[in-house]
């Protein structure tokens, strides 16, 4: 019987390994990026949407390539067996934001195994392309601008969805590794990427998580902007908990009148809300820093976004440690705060800028080069 279980376990691992085999080698991925980028320098080719889609796709392959044959959830035995010949140069017991984890050091990445011996984070220490996700986003956006006839709408939409998912994955990695400020920026980038036409999906979870991680980092003014956005979109959190977040921020700022107003409005909309469920905290105990189990909204960011297919969340994710994320420009429209819920079909024009976000950060401003985005979206997915 034990042999049968072992055979089944190996078979399952090999199936997952086969799925990862589609990832290009780093050398091949980098070569494809360089070739595609050169094509964008040709004036005639640069006028075609297909040129920019190909460049963006190559960038996304370059983002995936350093992960190699590893995927989240692998055991140490699977890492040794299916690592494609890659061997760690060191193994370290490390404290990661209050959690005891095992760190396997490779030439271009670090693998973090959790307390259960499962791979939880792949941290890319030597990315093939700096700021690769932002460059991919820019390329898909350029393709959308050139695709006036809509011939590449499907390809561009799928690409933007991948970029948004990747930013989300990176945000959870940053959260796990204890960089809450960086996590907030990455969640914001996920929301921007998702909202970009033609994909044009409103990701309220990413907006909420951008606020949640900002308040966890002590960046209350930045968090307030995102939580206000949540109210504008009719996204109130479990039992209207977003009101509690805003009330707590106002209270800490010494504005007791505003704090009382938020609480009164929240209890008006959610009269059955339990006060204990509104226990807002800006710090998280080590035991609560588990991004894969986020049923407790008061202590963890929400794991799944309403616009991200569940099947894409199990693939390996990476966190580039060579540079911090560049914050994308976010322009978005707020619905009236009296709106009880967002309709299933959304049609909104972007008008309100969030450029003030960069001034509320505790670290130096990002090197922003992405033009301000004027977004519109049509969504048929329930929020």
Which residues form runs of ≥5 with pLDDT under 50? Answer: 2-14, 16-21, 280-298, 304-323, 330-383
The number of helical segments is 12
The amount of beta strand, in percent, is 5-15%
Give the SSE string. Answer: HHHHHEEEEHHHHHHHEEEE
Number of strands: 8
Distance between the termini: 46 Å
Decide which structural class fits the backbone: alpha+beta
What is the overall shape?
A: flat
Strand order, sheet with most strands: 1-2-3-4
Rg, Å, rounded: 22 Å
Oligomer kind? single chain
Helix content: 40-55%
What's the story with the biggest beta sheet? 4 strands, antiparallel
Mean pLDDT: 76
Brief sketch in words of this structure:
The chain has 383 residues and is an alpha+beta fold. The chain has helices spanning 2-20, 26-40, 43-46, 49-64, 76-82, 132-146, 153-176, 180-195, 204-216, 220-232, 241-252, 256-269, and strands spanning 90-96, 99-105, 109-113, 119-124, 331-332, 346-349, 352-353, 376-379.
């Amino acid at each position: 019987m034990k042999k049968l279980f072992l055979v089944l376990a190996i078979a399952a691992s090999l199936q997952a390994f086969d799925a990862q085999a589609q990832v290009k080698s780093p050398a091949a991925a980098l070569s494809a990026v360089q070739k595609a980028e050169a094509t964008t320098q040709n004036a005639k080719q640069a006028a075609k949407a297909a040129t920019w889609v190909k460049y963006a796709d190559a960038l996304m392959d370059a983002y995936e390539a350093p992960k190699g044959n590893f995927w989240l959830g692998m055991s140490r035995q699977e890492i040794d067996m299916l690592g494609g010949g890659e061997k760690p140069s060191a193994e370290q017991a490390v404290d990661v934001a209050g959690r005891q984890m095992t760190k396997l050091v490779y030439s271009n990445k670090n693998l973090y195994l959790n307390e259960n011996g499962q791979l939880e984070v792949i941290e890319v220490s030597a990315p093939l392309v700096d700021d690769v996700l932002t460059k991919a986003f820019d390329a898909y956006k350029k393709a959308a601008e050139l695709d006036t006839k809509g011939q590449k709408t499907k390809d561009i939409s799928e690409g933007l969805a991948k970029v948004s998912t990747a930013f989300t994955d990176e945000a959870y990695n940053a959260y796990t590794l204890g960089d809450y400020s960086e996590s907030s920026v990455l969640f914001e980038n996920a929301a921007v990427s998702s909202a970009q036409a033609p994909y044009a999906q409103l990701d309220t979870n990413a907006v909420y998580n951008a606020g949640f991680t900002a308040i966890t980092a002590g960046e209350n003014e930045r968090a307030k902007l995102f939580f206000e956005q949540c109210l504008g979109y009719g996204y109130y959190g479990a039992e209207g908990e977003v009101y509690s977040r805003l009330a707590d921020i106002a209270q800490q700022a010494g504005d007791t009148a505003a704090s009382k107003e938020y609480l009164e409005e929240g209890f008006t909309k959610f009269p059955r809300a339990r006060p204990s469920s509104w226990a807002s905290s800006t710090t998280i105990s080590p035991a609560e820093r588990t991004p894969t189990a986020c049923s407790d909204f008061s202590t963890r960011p929400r794991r799944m976004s309403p616009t991200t297919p569940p099947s894409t969340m199990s693939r390996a994710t990476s966190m580039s440690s060579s540079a911090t994320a560049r914050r994308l420009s976010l322009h978005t429209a707020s619905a009236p705060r009296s709106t009880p819920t967002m309709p299933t079909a959304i049609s909104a024009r972007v008008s309100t800028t969030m450029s003030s976000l960069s001034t509320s950060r505790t670290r130096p401003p990002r090197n922003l080069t992405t033009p301000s985005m004027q977004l519109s979206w049509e969504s048929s997915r329930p929020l």
